[in-house]
Write a structure and sequence with these properties.
Layout: H1 2-20, H2 23-44, E1 50-56, E2 60-62, E3 66-75, E4 81-90, E5 95-96, E6 102-106, E7 109-118, E8 122-131, E9 136-140, E10 143-148, E11 155-160, E12 164-169, H3 175-178, H4 190-195, E13 197-207, H5 219-225, E14 229-235, E15 240-245, H6 259-278, E16 282-291, E17 297-303, H7 308-318, E18 319-323, H8 327-335, E19 343-348, H9 353-364, E20 368-373, E21 386-389, E22 428-431
Parallel strand pairs: 2-12, 15-16, 15-19, 19-20, 20-21
Antiparallel strand pairs: 1-3, 3-8, 4-7, 4-10, 5-8, 6-7, 8-22, 9-12, 10-11, 13-14, 16-17, 16-18
Length: about 425
């Protein structure tokens, strides 16, 4: 708008000077049009060859750990930039340590803002340290770049992708800190191991007995010996633990959400999974929580690969606090696919009637059921099941004010207006 008004004024001065034979007006009009032309060319090429780089020192961290953030702006051309602005959206749950960067409040996020002048082929670098006080999957980018001519008449704006992800795992606690017995929190499983057989590990054949199921008949051995023969299997040495995490904190959705209890359920799941990994067990996780990067629930199949714990912790980091299906339905559906002799560990803040009925049916099928009741009130009795009452320690630092996003905003936060500046960390300058 200013450029167009300036162009009208310059043309009017030029025409008026010619009509009135006033050399001063003619010179003023020519100077104005020349300046506008230079400004237009300058503004058009301002963002050519400008790059924004942001590097994280780590992309997988635990709750409360720190991450280094390096930001670099580079001008790869002869044309200097008298001003350049770069804004990148960030989650308000991430906190920068002093010296803090320039931040803009742009709900629902923050903008990591940089403003600098660049000479030809100059690179400017900033280094920050970021605290991760909240579990989650954080995405970075795109960044918005703005620049123009020195007179501010022509402004160009573009976006660069600069994608990156940061997984912040939930905090993990020891069994003692959770209030669980340090040994065998899921009961004695040694006896059940000897009673179970692995159908994938055939040990040999023997004669058929009346109590043998028909599916174990070895037909080739039967044809060879002319007598019914059945397969024998080695006893299994693996123990499978499936964690079922309920993200619902009330009996009805319309009652709201207790964020402290939901986060506590995730912390308990992460802690028990980490302990199961140290035992060399096969473990997995199913939850009715929606994943932050997908519209489906978080589901980590059972396994005991070296990276199984990492996969499970990533799944917990991706969890949102929103349920996509009833927990009783999830438990009833997924339990049918569990191998014989599995231990089902249910982590739930509530124990409605439908869930208790589902647990009883699973127990009647011979499954070992361990219930971690996370509500503040003691759970109802559940016969023939191992039940632990693990209420959320609401005064703990990692649960305090989990629902208050504003608490994690930096103390020094400038207004949305770009012209309202505060002192920021100086850049580390360097030429290419």
């Amino acid at each position: 708008m200013y450029a167009r008004s300036a162009a009208y004024v310059a043309v009017a001065a030029l025409v008026l000077g010619i009509l009135l034979h006033q050399n001063a007006l003619v010179s003023l009009g020519i100077l104005g049009l020349t300046t506008l032309g230079i400004a237009a060319v300058w503004g058009r090429g301002a963002l050519a060859g400008v790059t924004y780089e942001r590097r994280l020192s780590e992309d997988h961290v635990f709750w409360g750990e720190r991450v280094g953030v390096d930001v670099t702006l580079t001008n790869y051309k002869l044309l200097p930039l008298t001003w350049l602005e770069a804004d990148e959206p960030l989650s308000r749950k991430l906190t920068f340590l002093p010296p803090q960067p320039d931040l803009v409040l742009a709900p629902p996020d923050l903008l990591l803002a940089h403003s600098v002048a660049l000479r030809p082929f100059e690179r400017v670098h900033w280094r920050y340290e970021m605290l991760c006080p909240a579990r989650g999957l954080y995405r970075f980018g795109p960044v918005t770049l703005r620049s123009g001519d020195p007179f501010g008449l022509y402004t160009r704006e573009t976006q660069q992708a600069a994608p990156a992800q940061l997984y912040v795992y939930p905090k993990t606690l020891t069994l003692d800190a959770l209030g669980l017995p340090p040994r065998q929190p899921f009961g004695d499983i040694r006896a059940s191991r000897m009673l179970l057989e692995d159908p994938l590990r055939t040990a040999g054949v023997r004669e058929y007995r009346p109590e043998d199921p028909f599916k174990r008949v070895h037909w080739k051995a039967t044809a060879r010996t002319q007598q019914l023969q059945v397969r024998t299997y080695d006893p299994t040495t693996d123990h499978t633990v499936l964690f079922f995490l309920n993200i619902e904190t009330w009996h009805h959705i319309y009652e709201g959400l207790d964020t402290a209890q939901a986060e506590w359920a995730i912390i308990v799941a992460a802690s028990l999974a980490r302990w199961a990994a140290t035992q060399g067990w096969s473990f997995g996780l199913h939850s009715n929580s929606a994943a932050a990067d997908a519209g489906e629930g978080v589901r980590i199949g059972a396994g005991r690969n070296p990276d199984q714990l990492i996969r499970l912790l990533e799944g917990l980091a991706r969890m949102t606090l929103y349920s996509i299906r009833p927990f009783s339905e999830l438990l009833r559906t997924e339990a049918h696919n569990l191998p014989l002799g599995s231990t089902v560990v249910v982590l739930t803040p509530v124990l409605p009637v439908a869930l208790r009925a589902t647990l009883r049916r699973l127990r009647e099928r011979g499954m070992r059921i361990v219930v971690c009741a996370l509500s503040d009130d003691p759970p109802p009795p559940l016969p023939r099941m191992t039940v632990y009452h693990l209420p959320a320690p609401r005064e703990a630092e990692y649960l305090r004010h989990t629902g208050e996003v504003e608490r994690q905003l930096p103390d020094r936060l400038r207004p949305t207006a770009r012209n309202a500046r505060l002192p920021v960390a100086p850049p580390l300058e360097g030429a290419l």
